[in-house]
Amino acid sequence: MASVARRHLGGAARRGREQVERQFLGTVWEDLDIWRYQEYIEQPALSKIDAKPYMAMRKWATQFYEAPPTDAVASA
């Protein structure tokens, strides 16, 4: 009896994992479509409430790029 319950649980866990994988992969492909066409804008038009944290994130992210940061991003 216990082995039947384990097999049922195993199948439910497998189906759950497969569903999560499908949703994740669908989201990744949608994100890739967006990222493929993004362009870097040196000084983006941002609202006052968004400017400080967004530019701080951009400055932080420069450590992951090989190209040296520009003055506008580095001084933000």
Folded structure, characterized:
This protein is mainly α and 76 residues long. The protein contains three helices and no strands. The longest helix is centred in the first third of the chain and has 35 residues. The protein is elongated, with a radius of gyration of 22 Å. The relative contact order is 0.07.
Quick structural summary:
Helix content is 70%, strand content 0%. The chain has 76 residues and is mostly helical. The longest helix is centred in the first third of the chain and has 35 residues.
Features:
single chain; mainly alpha; elongated; 70% helix; 2 domains
Question: What is the number of helical segments per DSSP (H or I, 4+ residues)?
Answer: 3
Helix/sheet category? mainly alpha
Distance between the termini: 65 Å
Largest sheet: none
Instruction: Give the helices and strands as they follow along the chain.
Output: HHH
Radius of gyration: 22 Å
Mean pLDDT: 80
> Helicity range of the residues?
55-70%
Task: List unreliable stretches of 5+ residues.
Answer: none
Tally of separate domains:
2
User: In one word, what is the shape?
Assistant: elongated
- How many strands? 0
Percent of residues in β-strands: under 5%
Q: Layout of helices and strands, plus pairs?
A:
Elements: H1 2-36, H2 48-61, H3 71-74
